[in-house]
Amino acid sequence: VGKVTGAMSANLATRPYDQVALGTSEGVVVVLNRFLEPTNGLTWIDGTPLGTFVGGGQISAPLVGSDGAGPFVVLTGTTLGTVVADARWASWILPPLPRWWRESLASPSILETGSESRIVGIENQAMVARATTTGLKSSDVALPAGSPWGTPVPLSINGVNSRVGIDWRVDGTQIIQIGVDLSNDDIAWQGQPIALSGFFGSSAGDLDGDGTDEWLSLSGTLLSRNSASGSATSQGSYPQLGYSLPMIAPFQGATPDLLLQSGGQGAKLVKNDYSLAWESTATEALNGMAGTRTTCGGATRFVTPAVKSAHLRAYEGATGNLL
């Protein structure tokens, strides 16, 4: 799709060797295996006004936030690196106007830390926090040798986002989860290595209602990590789900549930005591990393695309029934 605008080595866990990633003028990335065959389909990364592809760093869709200066977006993978841009006058014909940019900033998130929003990401093996308006750096915490697997997530303790977590890839085949205290600029705790089987996802939220987030991940077993202490325990009996990604959100009522997406099996909804609420029927292969929660007429839905299909599949949040 489009013309090739750049190429880089793609050290992905889906193959035991480096692949080749091609960026195109249409804002997509195609990953090729050793036989130069596409392995990922097409992945949208960002709009073309600020550039579509440049080597290095984590590529993701734009992030949207708002601060005292108004709405803004965060764009990665541009010719300027990561760009924080003013969206007050953006339109179909006028792109957001850059506030500031950092070529070395990768895997950014917009996080509420303390009383303000900040851009938190990875620069030169360190987690940094920068002001959304000016880009001035307020925190810089050195991390061990490795690379980010995903973006930083806020970790709430006693109702306050006082820490930030990052899934950190080490030795190529392992993930360690690190809790960073940006108020003291240090690592609060670091978990034991978790075997990386090719896909890994995590999500944080107050599942049990005690005011402190659980950081949940699924890789062979469902792991619940306490945001305050960093201690982790295995929960329930859930074998590894292909293309798995936890989602913490209310599906059966006002309190959060845990939805385990899957590419090889039907999605599972887990209650806050880690018992199984329902398991949906997978009538076809689903793209379990791309599902989302939505509402329809006051009822919750889990919506996910099917593989090689132009149609979305919607499941009833209360029962898991396919609609």
Whole-number radius of gyration? Answer: 20 Å
Whole-Å distance between the termini?
33 Å
Choose one word for the global shape: globular
Classification by helices and strands: mainly beta
Q: Which parts are unreliable, with pLDDT below 50 for 5 consecutive residues or more?
A: 41-61
Element-by-element helix/strand order: EEEEEEEEEEEEEEEEEEEEEEEEEEEEE
Largest sheet: 6 strands, antiparallel
Summarize model confidence as the mean pLDDT: 81
Helix content: under 10%
Number of helices: 0
Strand count: 29
Instruction: Kindly estimate the percentage of residues that lie in beta strands according to DSSP.
Output: over 45%
What does this structure look like?
Helix content is 0%, strand content 49%. The protein has no helices and 29 strands. The chain has 323 residues and is mainly β. Strands 13, 14, 15, 16, 17 and 18 form a six-stranded antiparallel beta sheet that branches. A hairpin with a 5-residue loop joins strand 11 and strand 12 (137-142). The model is unreliable at 41-61 (pLDDT under 50).
